Amino acid sequence: MKLADVIAVLESAYPPKTAEKWDAVGLVCGDPQEEVTRVLVCVDPTSSTVDEAVERGAQLVLAHHPLLLKGVNGVPADDPKGALVHKLIRNGAALYCAHTNADSALPGVSDALAKAIGLTVTGPLEAALTEDTGLGRIGELAQPEPLRAFAQRVAAALPATVQGVRAAGDPEGLIRRVAVCGGAGDSFLDAVKRAGVDAYVTADLRHHPASEHIESGGPALVDVAHWASEWPWCEQAAEILRAAFGGRVDVLVSTRRTDPWTVGATSTAVGGLA
User: For residues 96 and 10, is the Cβ–Cβ distance under 8 A?
Assistant: First the structure.
C-alpha cells in the first residue's frame, strides 16, 4: 500500500476539517507515493518512539500529538524536533499526526478511554455544532460502585505512570454515570456539572479549578496522567487500519512509555495537618 492510501483511511476516520483552528494535523514528513508495509501508532512523536519505529522497520509513525504545533522557520538537524524529522526521513519513515480531529471523531480518543474503563457510551460531553460528534464522552457503568473502587478501576485500566490516579470527592459516593475526556480536560468542568454525571475522568486537572469544582458541589473528579488517558486510542487507531488493509499492512502499537515524569515520591512527614 502507498502512504497516500493509509492517509485516505486516516482522514476518513479522523477528518482534518474537524480539528481545532489552532491545531496542526496531517502529514508532517514523508512521500505519499512511498510504499508502507508497517505502521507504528503512538501518543507522542518523541526520540523514543521514533527510535522504536526505526528499530521495528515502520515506514509510518501515526502519532496523536503534533510534533510541530507552533510555527517554525526550519527543521535543522541540531534542533531536537528537527533532528526527529531528519531521522525519520533518513530511515524512510513518514510522520502523520491526528490530534483534535481524533478527539472529536466517532469513535475517537474519549471513546477509547471510556471503553478501557468499562463504560457504555451514551453521547458526547460537548456536542459539536455542525457534526454528529463532539468532545469528551458520557457513559455508564453496568453497576454503581464507590468512588474509591472506581478510581481503582481506572488505575487498572490504564498503563502505570509515576502520577498514578487520584480522585476528589466522597470516597464512598456511588459512581455510575461518568464523563470522560482524554487529555487535558479542566476546560469542560462547567459542562460536566451540567451533564448530571457522578464523576469525571480526565487529565491535567489544576488545583484551583478542581478545588472550586468540588467546593461548589460538582461531581467527583478522577485525574490521570495525560499520556495514559490517550494511550487507549493507539489500539483504536491501529484497529481502524487493520480493518482497512487486513494483512497487507502490519500495524503496531508503541510499547514506549512517553509520560515525561520518571520519579514519584510520597511524603513521610507527620504533624498537625488534617
Answer: yes
Whole-number Å distance between alpha carbons of 264 and 268? 13
Which amino acid, 153? R
- Which cell goes with 128? 459539536
Distance between first and last Cα of the chain: 61
**Whether the predicted pLDDT of 274 surpasses 60:** no
Whether omega before 107 lies within 30 degrees of 0, making that bond cis, reads yes
Beta strand 174-184 with 120-127 is unpaired
Could you read off the pLDDT of 98-108 as tens digits, one per residue? 999 999 999 99
What's the grid cell of residue 211? Answer: 478545588
Alpha-carbon gap, residue 225 to 163, rounded angstroms: 6
Task: State how far the alpha carbon of 60 is from the alpha carbons of 30, 154, 224, in Å.
Answer: 8, 31, 29
- Beta strand pairing status for 250-253 and 174-184? unpaired
pTM higher than the cut 0.85: yes
The pLDDT of residue 192: 97
Q: What is the 3-state secondary structure (H, E, C) of 94-120?
A: EEEECCHHHHHCCCCHHHHHHHHHCCE
Kindly state the cell numbers that stand for 176. 455510575
Separation between Cα atoms, residue 47 and residue 147, nearest integer Å: 37
pLDDT grade for 273, boundaries at 50, 70 and 90: low
Q: What is the DSSP letter of 147?
A: H
